[in-house]
């Protein structure tokens, strides 16, 4: 296909690039400049334009006609769409695009290592921005956010699997995993900070005990034993490097560990992560002894839970 359409492919890319510039200069700028009530009247039109553009671009990448420059422009344009457009009608398409670009980076023979690294770094940034947008949707409209995340479970799982299969132990792999860790840690920490009664701070026993955003993401993670192992490695690294710090966030990490350990793909790496979190928690011992607070309860509860896990 690449050979047959080599010359025509350049024409297609040129047309798509022109369409992309038009989308930025006309459609996205129009959306930025208009009031919300006016946009509601034209939502179907601009959503259809954006969906059609992304669909064609996805197909171009999928059949191998999109070169490095085209893919980079597409990713940058995707960031612009997320920053400008309200609603998440494009999320499934973007996840499919990220998956295709992640795979095609292995077979683009003309790209230098530096170009591939830049491309994959942008893939990770688009993915991070996407999850941040979905997380904000959860906070503002929980039911809509939950419907959205459940609707994109298939492409999200396929993207994570693609990164795991093709780019293990690379910056994009670690970046995607750290983004998947950050979402649940932030949500669980927020939930813990809102609790006023210590009786409500029972550690989770099952996936269903996690708050909704975390439940969806961790539910996708635990579908694959390989992803679970890599996820735990990255969680351990985040704790060791203080990317996850403080009693509340470390307790959130404990909750994630417990749910993974209760799943069918529990790993021997659970103990390694548990030991790392346990050591980090001990650095807060003197602080928590000085006050009677939720944090002290979380410290004691998490330390006890981790001790039981490590001694089991």
UniProtKB/TrEMBL annotation:
Protein name stated in the entry? Condensin-2 complex subunit G2
Native species of this protein? Answer: Macaca mulatta
Query: Which classification does the entry list for the species?
Result: Eukaryota, Metazoa, Chordata, Craniata, Vertebrata
Q: Which gene name does the record give?
A: NCAPG2
